[in-house]
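Today's session is about reading a structure prediction critically. Students often jump straight to the picture, but the first step is always the sequence itself: look for stretches that repeat, for charged clusters, for runs of hydrophobic residues. Only then move on to the predicted structure, which in these notes is written as discrete structure tokens rather than atom positions. Here is the chain we will use throughout the hour.
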Amino acid sequence: MTKIRYRSSLNPTKKHVLELRDPRWKARRLEILARDNSRCQLCGVGQHSGLHVHHLRYGIGLTAWGHPDADLLTLCDFCHGGLHTLKAMTRKEFFQLKPMLLDLIPATRRSAP
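Below is the predicted structure for this chain, in token form.
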């Protein structure tokens, strides 16, 4: 298996944005939502709509649906917007930063994750 090289930016490429319309991405997105029990993995909010499957980092040469599970995370609109202001990170780094990130979310938004 070849090692994945990652971009340092969290800004998606134009190609990536177009891939989000592909049925293969839509199927992959549903897999990740099911894995995460349709709950934001940061604040714990569960919603039927308004959830995003976020790429924690972008693999060079990978399609939107070709990323490993560890690179994908369910987030609500609020948390998704905030996370895009940070750098690319691994899933392990995300969960290490989660307590600090939770402090930035208004208590009224939080649910038991």
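Discussion point for the tutorial: The two ends are 34 Å apart (CA to CA).
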